[in-house]
Specification:
The complex is a heterodimer of chains A (475) and B (303). Chain A is an alpha+beta fold and 475 residues long. Helices cover 59% and strands 17% of the residues of chain A. Chain A starts with a helix and ends with a helix. Chain B has a 4-stranded antiparallel β-sheet. At the A-B interface, helix 6, strand 12, helix 10, helix 11 and helix 12 of A face strand 4, helix 5, helix 7, helix 8 and helix 9 of B.
Chain lengths: 475, 303
């Protein structure tokens, strides 16, 4: 045991010395300089995360000159919203009128799956398909960020075939409806055919075939077990009548039924070309929609427009920081310079957090960020104004600085809380567009509480010296 | 020290007039709601060479059946079209009609769609109710917060009066930008109330409270420090002490917003404008209205 102690004693002593240096440097100024150094080191790497391209560029230069090998920085992209990246947001209304309420959940999940499959097949980086309920409406929201050809994407989703088999109404019903429609009522009903419940949901497979007699392309449909049963029942009760095949709410063919058909096979012989038939088969096979949907809202932005918007808003952010920085330095002099350093640390940390938390940046989000830049220096202004008062009241230099902070704190806290309340409500009670603004502003305000207070205080503790005189200290 | 509080009546009159003008504008002109609130379509497109005139565009699209189409040139080659909610096929017809019209006139001229937005009435309705809900919830939270922040002050004014003064300032700060946008929207149809506008107004709301709280915090502190002085003097000292800081913080925020307004591009310009108006007014009211109200109330108390 003693041997162990002896061997360990030297490294333990060394460790203790290092720990003491790390955790308890001697003297106030050294301590704050030390913490400040740590913050700057973190900020340095955070800046690398923010702007990895610059990191890589300088790393290469240094590597070449000094023959070392600094690695490239880890790449994490900013998450850009539709308005900056281009893309489309499509909102569909699902028509669940044929289902009972207990089936809604399942139908919507099925719908989402089918559309997700289609969207994935389209090769978009981060498609987002989600269901949403609003009042009595069931909706499906599809977000396609970065999609190049929006029209084609809409075709892929919006014109997914909705296949339905309908049977003839009785003559009396037809008469009743046509009569009502002449008077402007029951306009959304089909006077001749009614739904049978057999839809694309029961489809197992569709195939293209050539009709032996007419040499025209036809489409063979294979139903699953339930579908086969339904089809047998429908054909059975409609012998001698017509059964219409509807695709996307229009009739493609309405053959007369000669006998009940068992085995679950049906043929669509519309008047279509080989190419059309092939397309139809592909679309049917990739999953017919379980319920019909309708596009009720869309927003789409060309990528080029998004790029311009992004460039402009980054420019605006740059000028915003520049103007605020100049103002602070001109008005508050040395404390102003320190506030600007804190502001830069603030910017670096906030941008890094946007990346790490995966905050989706939208145009309004950038406005929120820029606004928070303006608000970030607010705390500094409060503190400096207080410090000046304390100087005027004849307090000693160090004490005045300390009092400035402690007296400004309640105001800083109270005022930021009111902004955070607004952000909180905006985030939880509004739509996705405004969420970005609220989140960016809230992250900004929280980070600014840290940088404008802690970082500025450490800077003051480290660098403040009375020697610089009244003018430079804004006294 | 400048005797700011003495001219209370002047501030009341100034704000009263502006508030009255805003109310009148809102009553007679209303707000020009954007398509995200009332439903409808907005298409932004660009001609490669030269924009067609409004008449030419109207002529080109008249057979599609879009209803009334409002056409606005935005920039030299860009044009914005507003019309009722339209489905995908109508959008395609519209774009191809404009493309062929552009090329018929000048072979090298082409038209491309830059962005398109179509909002169904049910979505607009939902957004309206969500916005209303957000405004109400923010108000409730903020009233609760102000009551909490000033729970300890009771002499010579009851703490709820600070809250009430904050709220008067708050309504003032929200009403004036609304009035401004009502007037702007009346004379320029492209100034619309979008969902971003609501976010901006709610931010103004938070900022207004923030500004009032800072001044009232000072009043509270000075009341404790100077037990002998009357309320008007104390309010005056407090406003003088916070004057520079109020101006400077608003100035920094307004400077950054000005950067957004000037460099940020068309789509966020109106949000920047609401924020500039609201925060400007908010600073004015925190200096001249909120504290003046407290002084007036304290006078009434003595009589």
């Amino acid at each position: 045991m003693d041997m162990f102690k002896k061997i360990l004693s030297a490294p333990l002593a060394a460790g203790k010395a290092v720990l003491k240096f790390i955790f308890m440097p001697e003297g106030e100024r050294a301590k704050s300089a030390y913490v400040l150094l740590l913050i700057f080191i973190v900020a340095f790497f955070a800046a690398g995360l923010d702007f990895p391209n610059y990191w890589d560029k300088y790393a290469h230069k240094i590597n070449d000159k000094l023959k070392v090998s600094i690695p490239n920085f880890y790449k994490l992209d900013y998450k850009l919203g539709l308005d900056l990246k281009g893309g489309a947001q499509l909102v569909y209304l699902a028509d669940l009128s044929a289902l009972s309420e207990s089936e809604y959940g399942g139908a919507m999940a099925g719908l989402r799956d089918v559309i997700e499959r289609r969207v994935n097949a389209f090769g978009i980086a981060e498609p987002n398909v989600q269901t949403a309920k609003s009042g009595s409406e069931q909706r499906l929201i599809v977000e396609l960020a970065g999609v190049k050809d929006i029209s084609q994407a809409i075709d892929m989703i919006g014109q997914t075939p909705y296949l339905e088999f309908k049977e003839e109404r009785s003559a009396s019903e037809t008469e009743e409806i046509t009569k009502a429609q002449k008077e402007g009522q029951r306009l959304d009903e089909d006077p001749y055919f009614q739904s049978t419940g057999l839809t694309g949901k029961y489809l197992k497979k569709a195939e293209i075939n050539l009709d032996q007699n007419t040499y025209q392309s036809v489409v063979n449909l294979n139903f699953d077990a339930d579908g086969a049963k339904l089809f047998e029942e429908i054909t059975g009760r409609n012998v001698g009548k017509r059964v219409a095949i509807y695709l996307d709410w229009s009739v493609i063919s309405a053959p007369r039924v000669n006998e009940a058909i068992s085995g679950g096979q049906a043929v669509i012989s519309g008047d279509f070309s080989q190419k059309e038939a092939t397309q139809l088969v592909q679309r049917l096979n990739s999953g017919a929609l379980p319920v019909p949907i309708k596009l009720i809202s869309q927003k789409n932005v060309e990528a080029s427009l998004g790029e311009i918007a992004l460039k402009k808003s980054l420019e605006a952010s740059f000028y915003a920081i520049l103007i605020v920085g100049l103002f602070m330095i001109l008005w508050y002099r040395v404390p102003g310079v320190l506030a600007v350093i804190a502001l830069l640390v603030y910017t670096i940390f906030t941008l890094a957090l946007f990346k790490l938390l995966g905050v989706t940046m939208t145009l309004t989000g950038i406005v929120g960020f820029i606004l928070s830049v303006g608000m970030a220096v607010d705390a500094n202004i409060l503190i400096f104004a207080r410090m000046k008062e304390e100087f005027r009241a004849g307090k000693k230099f160090d004490l005045a600085i300390r009092e400035g902070f402690s007296r400004a704190w309640p105001s800083i806290r109270d005022s930021n809380i009111s902004t955070l309340i607004t952000c909180f409500v905006l985030y939880f009670f509004t739509t996705s567009l405004i969420k970005g603004f609220a989140l960016a502003l809230a992250v900004g305000v929280l980070v600014s509480m840290f940088t404008a207070i802690t970082v500025t205080r450490l800077l003051l503790k480290t660098f403040a010296t009375e020697k610089l005189g009244k003018f430079l200290w804004y006294r | 020290m400048v005797s700011i509080m003495r001219y209370r009546k002047f501030y009341y009159m100034f704000s009263g007039l502006l508030a009255l003008a805003s109310v009148l504008a809102l009553v007679f002109w209303g707000l020009n709601l954007g398509i995200d609130f009332k439903g409808g379509s907005l298409l932004l497109g660009e001609f490669s060479k030269q924009a067609m005139s409004q008449e030419e565009i109207k002529e080109a699209v008249k057979d599609i059946g879009l209803g009334e189409v409002i056409i606005q040139p935005t920039g030299e080659k860009e044009v914005t079209l507003r019309f009722n909610e339209a489905d995908e096929s109508k959008r395609r017809q519209l774009v191809s009609a404009l493309q062929s019209a552009a090329q018929n006139k000048d072979k090298e001229n082409n038209f491309t769609q830059k962005s398109f937005e179509s909002v169904g009435p049910s979505i607009g309705k939902e957004l309206r109710s969500k916005a209303a809900k957000a405004v109400i919830i923010v108000l409730i939270f903020i009233i609760g917060y102000v009551a909490f922040a000033f729970r300890k002050v009771s002499r010579p004014l009851a703490s709820w009066k600070y809250g009430a003064a904050t709220l008067v300032a708050l309504f003032h700060d929200v009403l004036l930008p609304l009035g401004l946008f009502s007037a702007l929207g009346h004379f320029d149809k492209s100034v619309e109330i979008s969902s971003g506008f609501i976010a901006a107004i709610l931010t103004v709301l938070g900022y207004s409270v923030h500004d009032s709280i800072i001044v009232f915090d000072r009043v509270r502190e000075n009341l404790i420090k100077n037990p002998g002085k009357n309320f008007e003097e104390i309010a005056n000292i407090s406003v003088n002490q916070t004057f520079i800081r109020s101006l400077n913080t608003s100035l920094t925020v307004i400077l950054v917003l000005l950067a957004v307004y000037l460099f940020g591009g068309e789509s966020i310009r109106s949000i920047a404008l609401v924020l500039i108006a609201g925060i400007g007014v908010g600073t004015y009211s925190s200096i001249f209205i909120g504290s003046s109200l407290l002084v007036s109330w304290s006078k009434k108390l003595r009589m």
